Amino acid sequence: MLLERIVSAGLAHYSYLVGDKNQALVIDPRRDVDDYIKMASGAGMRIAYVLETHRNEDFFVGSMELAGRTEAQVWHADGQWDYQYGQPAASGQRWRVGRLEVEAIATPGHTPGSMSYLLRDPSGIPWMLFCGDTLFAGEVGRIDLMGKDLAAENAGLLYESLFKRLLPLGDEVILCPAHGSGSVCGELIAERLWTTIGLEKKHNARLQESQEQFVASMLKS
Q1: Model confidence over 135-153: pLDDT tens digits?
Q2: Angle (deg, nearest 10), helices 34-42 and 63-70
Q3: Domain 2-220 classified CATH 3.50.50.60?
Q4: Angle, vertex CA 114, rays to CA 139 and CA 62, nearest 5
């Protein structure tokens, strides 16, 4: 089994390599794709899939480069936009990687078609959640990228995504966001290199608010 987090220095950007048996997938790859290919090849695995959680604004995504060198299938979020590459992922869609399974979960709010990906272990237990910019350690994703006129609507969508789709997955599920402390994608991202849904439910101030409080505080940010 292969699980790696690749950190892009200066951006606090996190991408992930997940593999089992002879297959692997990459989530939110950066443009320099050599590390993914070397790690997978060194473990005797072929990168079969590339999954994107949302349209990134702070770096150039490397999905096309990775697909060009590995023939991996690319699945992107925000299917309402014309990416001109890959295919749009659908909520509930699943991918098999060896004994592992990954399921797409629609989590709109940060972007209209943001996707999170739930990884289940070989026995089917929910294990890790690749949540893009929906939820961070100590913070949640920005809701202003689509403009001020849509900010309130996006804040409401983000609340629904967090409280109705992600938090019920279980306190023990490990969170794997797309950014860490120092990123401009969240104002108050904590310096917890690894976190869980349970830790965030207990310590993330955004998750202590009612829906009305959440929307109001997000609009002030």
Answers
A1: 999 999 999 877 778 899 9
A2: 40
A3: no
A4: 95
